[in-house]
Amino acid sequence: ITAAADAWACGAAGLPKPWQPQKPVLPVEGMRNVLITSALPYVNNVPHLGNIIGCVLSADTFARYCRLRNWNTLYVCGTDEYGTATETKAVEEGLTPQEICNKYNAIHADIYRWFDISFDYFGRTTTPHQTTIAQDIFQRLLAHGFLLQDTVEQLRCENCQRFLADRFVEGTCPFCSYEEARGDQCDKCGKLINAVELKKPQCKLCKGVPVVQPTQHLFLDLPKLEERLEPWLEQSWATGDWTANARYITRSWIRDGLKPRCITRDLKWGTPVPLDGFRDKVFYVWFDAPIGYLSITANYTDQWERWWKNPQQ
């Protein structure tokens, strides 16, 4: 209390000189270096107040606090642009996926600028850096034996001559009989769905009835990581600041045993898979999108690894 009273009595003259980071902002030896990101907003809509409050505003507030503390702070974000939802929106508006991304990225950037969100850089995931980094991570996983190949039963629309990604299928939920369930999840009961489990499936593009056909896909071999993951989690839970919800969900995954997770999709709009036999496929958006944090930073500075591969600072 005495220190606070003394600081108050000194007034603004007693404040430390504001830190002026170099441009681009890079980690500085001996300083507290803080990298902040917001959840990447999906590109196929116009942001509303809920998106602002639930996504970028809390990170913006924290970034401003860090800068007031004279911590060396970098705050990056950008639009998440690959995946089925973009293709669906493109069909709705009669545009190409790239045109949809260009249109809505500009809208997002303008709205965040209007709200004065203090990003150091606001980018996007449809860039050459995204392709390079995502494919490099994929090649490393492949080289270290963390990928496997398997046959998947998938819905194919003969009218559209394409395998149907989850969001291109609707039908009746096999659990609660809701008649407008998506091919990945039922919005009524909340259960995850495999599209081939839907009753009365229908192609969203042409309203035709799809058929089940086998197709080859690549999977992350997550069971291989269980032995290494469990001791790491115990240490992280003991020393980190995990929410109760995050601990509960993670424990349930470990308790039930990790399962292989498919990382490829039969789509055109996405990061291409750089492997013979799979070059007509793209990476599943949940493999690809988190890498967007790295690639957006790489578009901000070619020294991006100093932020993402620098645990000492």
TrEMBL record:
Residues 34-311 form the Methionyl/Leucyl tRNA synthetase domain. It comes from the Eukaryota. GO terms for molecular function: ATP binding; methionine-tRNA ligase activity. Keywords: Aminoacyl-tRNA synthetase, ATP-binding, Cytoplasm, Ligase, Nucleotide-binding, Protein biosynthesis. Belongs to the class-I aminoacyl-tRNA synthetase family. PANTHER family: METHIONINE--TRNA LIGASE, METHIONINE--TRNA LIGASE, CYTOPLASMIC. This is Methionine--tRNA ligase, cytoplasmic. It comes from Anhinga anhinga. The lineage of its organism: Eukaryota, Metazoa, Chordata, Craniata, Vertebrata.
